[in-house]
Amino acid sequence: MKTLGVGLIGTGYMGKCHALAWNAVKAVFGDVARPRLVHLAEIDAQLAAARATEFGFEKATADWRALIADPDVDVVSVTTPNQFHPEMAIAALEAGKHVWCEKPMAPAYADAERMLAAARASGRVAALGYNYIQNPVMRHIRTLLDEGAIGAVNHIRVEMDEDFMADPEAFFYWKSEGTSGYGALDDFAVHPLSLLWYLFGHVEAVIADMTKPYLDRPLQHGGRRAVENHDAASVLVRLSGGISAVLMANRAAWGRKGRITLQIFGSKGSILYDQERMNEFELYQADGRATEQGFRKVLAAPAHRPYDRFIPAPGHGLGFNDLKIIECHELIRAISGEPASIVTFEDGLRIEKSVHAMAESFHQRRWIEIG
Amino acid sequence: MKTLGVGLIGTGYMGKCHALAWNAVKAVFGDVARPRLVHLAEIDAQLAAARATEFGFEKATADWRALIADPDVDVVSVTTPNQFHPEMAIAALEAGKHVWCEKPMAPAYADAERMLAAARASGRVAALGYNYIQNPVMRHIRTLLDEGAIGAVNHIRVEMDEDFMADPEAFFYWKSEGTSGYGALDDFAVHPLSLLWYLFGHVEAVIADMTKPYLDRPLQHGGRRAVENHDAASVLVRLSGGISAVLMANRAAWGRKGRITLQIFGSKGSILYDQERMNEFELYQADGRATEQGFRKVLAAPAHRPYDRFIPAPGHGLGFNDLKIIECHELIRAISGEPASIVTFEDGLRIEKSVHAMAESFHQRRWIEIG
Amino acid sequence: MKTLGVGLIGTGYMGKCHALAWNAVKAVFGDVARPRLVHLAEIDAQLAAARATEFGFEKATADWRALIADPDVDVVSVTTPNQFHPEMAIAALEAGKHVWCEKPMAPAYADAERMLAAARASGRVAALGYNYIQNPVMRHIRTLLDEGAIGAVNHIRVEMDEDFMADPEAFFYWKSEGTSGYGALDDFAVHPLSLLWYLFGHVEAVIADMTKPYLDRPLQHGGRRAVENHDAASVLVRLSGGISAVLMANRAAWGRKGRITLQIFGSKGSILYDQERMNEFELYQADGRATEQGFRKVLAAPAHRPYDRFIPAPGHGLGFNDLKIIECHELIRAISGEPASIVTFEDGLRIEKSVHAMAESFHQRRWIEIG
Amino acid sequence: MKTLGVGLIGTGYMGKCHALAWNAVKAVFGDVARPRLVHLAEIDAQLAAARATEFGFEKATADWRALIADPDVDVVSVTTPNQFHPEMAIAALEAGKHVWCEKPMAPAYADAERMLAAARASGRVAALGYNYIQNPVMRHIRTLLDEGAIGAVNHIRVEMDEDFMADPEAFFYWKSEGTSGYGALDDFAVHPLSLLWYLFGHVEAVIADMTKPYLDRPLQHGGRRAVENHDAASVLVRLSGGISAVLMANRAAWGRKGRITLQIFGSKGSILYDQERMNEFELYQADGRATEQGFRKVLAAPAHRPYDRFIPAPGHGLGFNDLKIIECHELIRAISGEPASIVTFEDGLRIEKSVHAMAESFHQRRWIEIG
């Protein structure tokens, strides 16, 4: 494979995370070509130039279309705010670039559908940034499930909680606007949904409850403004095969910082996971003497691939940014035509479809089946 | 107050627990009269005699009606299987006895209503065995909520899980019969409901999903029999004031032994609790520097009344049976006309009403409002 | 066996704990005679009478010698401050009573030796209150060690920490006087030593370091007084067979309330225990795939005898006071001539000998071998 | 500052870790010049070439002296086995290069002294790889100690345990040879010693016990060979100011993978840390009501600098390799003449001096004072 030319649009939270991954992927994995960091776009030319220097990109621009038009760019990282994803991703695909777009695809389902159509038409790789599925621990959980280590799964609970909306006196900002989306559901319930999808396949039916912990918030220059979406959502879910699940998301959960928990119950055992301790999982297997049965806390280790590409010793711990390096590696493999574990636009659309169904089920106060 | 004459019907799991409480309550608390253990009833005369000797009761009988007719008996502990509760409790109340009946009141709601009517007619104390609310830790959680330690509560999650139905090849027995009840819901979701009631008041609206992890079970003499109720239930709940909650119960949850967890989210902090570690709770308060904010794990201590009546040193730990001693003490106080924290038949009926509403919401696949 | 007549001297912390055990042991275990609570002694006649009523004793006295002279008393619980143990225990043994004396035996080693001599001369059961070894979890740890579940043990760490001496501005009181003992070492390091003895046998060589976190403390009426003993002690230990251990005790350890931890390392695995979570232990066994190896957290369950005598369901939890009930049951078995797990005065003397050796090793700044 | 030319000798465990850090440091921190990856040395030319491609180095060599002679190289990462450190580090310093050498300095103390002499003579930055002190959590613990958050520290316990030597039937290899060092003491007790040094300063007196869990090990081609050093070591320690500490290290501790725990007790509170959960620490402060006192578990967050340079959201987690990036950043600052937190050869020599004193105290069975 020839050198892969990289373009990066956006350099905020996830933009920097992409940049770190592009810088590290060759040194970590060795088995792919070193990407060439070609072009970086930011909203402001000066900022773009500064970031290009920091992140090691050759060119900088305030015009993302110039980046997409750059013939040296083969793949584009789209890490801008969600509303810009459709336009940028579609333009990049139409220009024949591969696309690595941060989740979610788009606030509007129709836009997400257009993105998928563009991806299909392009024949390029179109992947979404759902890095939690790349955790070696999560991969191993899937292996355990596939092997039947806990038998047939019959019930799942998944929670995602943070507290960045927990302060009732924090100023109103765009995350509380209705145009930004439903709130907790699409702001981050898509993450646990990506885990459900990765481990168990798609959601078939849902009914959701959603609440506003705070009805209004102060404005910076006085007065208060009504909150327009819901910071907490809880959903009864049916997966294929009649498996029941409960999905809970709360971005106003004081004390929770990056919590995504899984409780998976099967006919022979159970598995537990908590993203705040992402280098561990717990496994209960119902065998042996009753006097020694218990949840086994397993620490991430080289035997959980590809942890070994980062550290040869067990229990030393990967970090959040390392997951993006693994995702980057999978993306490169996909671009090279090798088998890879990525969330395609097709997968992503299905995830977002279930989010919209959840919101609908709340407003209609009834179960919604997803076709 | 004169000596309280005690009758005990049933000597199984909870029967023994009552017996231990009646034996210990005076020595632990000191401020009540020592109960006189008068009469014990079991299904078999020989067993009754043996247990009376063990538990320190004066008389034994295989005829529970004889116990109820005993003029030396002032209060009757009813700890038999659920279907016998109505007949025994009503007979005892009608005989002018106080009643301490294990939860739930009755499999059929109409029977529970008759029990309440009998209690009202009798003017006696009619209390239910909901010992988890008696934990000094739980009492302190209520104090914290009342004091506003975590501000206004806006979201709650409560889980109750055990694994006694988790083995798919365990023989079919009465707990899987439809006549025994809905399954997880009334078998033990009443416990977390008692906590919700104790801390937050009553449930106003519900929608439940229920599942059968295993469709059938082997019979002891060959063949298999279809399971008739649901081992797992998940419920979206609205409490008064629009607070949202999620209630999850699973008696087929491998690895869970006596788990009842609470996650309580408020405008100023959060509280966590897990019954498997009943001598602890966690408190997050959103104040002070960001660099030191975190969940504080508090160990049960004498300052959490009435822990001090058991042990003068912190962190030494109460046990499950100690909660029943506290409940017994509250019952004696109620009988003596003093302020007491018990779950009356009135409270219990409301708890059971919400259980029936949950089952109805599942069958009708819609939200049910509770009057 | 005829009814066992019980005398109780002292009704403070451990006195009440004994009283609760004597009240409960028959109802819990069933297989022993119900003790007759005959005589209770306290320093003040009025207090004695009040406590006798509370705890269910027939007679009360301010003269403990009267209690020992009572022909209806067969066994005497000695729960007074440590300096009174020798006189009372020896008098009781000389009067032909069995003795159940709280640890430690005596501040002075010579007094402890006299107690042992009296026990030997009497032919009676002379047991010490070391209830932590009675935990069903601890018993099971011994079973696992005996079975070789973790292979040959080669290293042990044991910690005991509380914080009742942690406040530097708490008033000086008798626990800081040199006459009360060495400080942390004999005040509570005897507890972890009882666990080492129970699980591994006797200590053979020691070298200790001891420190005074605070050199003086305020007096209630002004001024300060120098602290005379050591609140923290750390000891390098050799057990028989060359096994190395580290014993650490600190009664000024902020945040520790009733912590006693064990870390036991063997050739095939490890075992962990923490008294603050006394209904759990952790077991690591080096077998199976590397991808699932981890510490298994096992919850106390009926299969861990005699937990089943208290509660038929796993994971529901015993309390600190329940351990004393088990100890009481073992004592009654010993008195009845049945095999029993108690700490005799002989065992206790050996434990205290090692404490004195530790103190000596600190003062001499060298290893001390224990004969 | 001009571009920094980097040479890397060794590409194993820590070699790769250095390479990842050199690749990432500019993108993470932004405020330093992007290093130029000039020259890489490995024992074999082909391997050197392959690794140079992977890690992004311009030149590769099998002759480390060529690398040191390279005028484009300004700083040399020395990550070879310990016995090669003195020769390479001294040669690099003599050639006017800055040196970043992995710990420990050298198996022999005299060699370490020569390294320090070379560093002093060179006037270059000579830093050791002690990355655990770079954890934002550890930095914050130091801040808390400096601020007096837990008052005056009086007692410390530190443990370092892994299980790579725990299998008694693993083949004998060089780590069990006496020439490799004392065993647990210098193999990894230097890490916890670096934490003690970082937080509290230097060790003043020690007495150690050391044990061989297994006396011999199988050889690959049959027979067994005696183990020549000690896999477990426990040390009583006195720090300056009379603070007592206990240091425990065990490389045969089944189930421990990367455990380094700290327990720090002060006059106003306590701090706990465990490297296996490196994104957390626990803080107990003895203030407020007794009913809410407890250990607060704090998750790493942007407010713990420089976590914010990696991730803008709290609780998302850094990894082991990220610590090396922070160390790399500090090194570059030191080279640039800015204030930096590194472990110099001077600091490292003092750490190693205390290790040698520990070994001596074991062999002489007495306390050793360190000048």
Q: What is the structure about, briefly put?
A:
Chain A has 371 residues and is α/β, with parallel strands linked by helices.
Tally of separate domains of chain A: 2
Mean pLDDT of chain A: 97
- Which structural category fits the helices and strands of chain A? alpha/beta
Strand content of chain A: 25-35%
Structure notes:
The structure is a homotetramer of 371-residue chains. Chain A has eleven helices and 18 strands. Chain A is an alpha/beta fold and 371 residues long. Chain A folds into two domains: 124 residues, NAD(P)-binding Rossmann-like Domain (Rossmann fold), CATH 3.40.50; 238 residues, Dihydrodipicolinate Reductase, domain 2, CATH 3.30.360. In chain A, α1 packs across α10, α4 packs parallel to α5 and α5 packs antiparallel against α11. The longest helix of chain A is centred in the last third of the chain and has 20 residues. The model of chain A has no long low-confidence stretch (mean pLDDT 97). Chains in contact: A-B, A-C, A-D, B-C, B-D, C-D. Chains A and B meet through β7, β8, β11, β12 and β13 of A and β7, β8, β11, β12 and β13 of B.
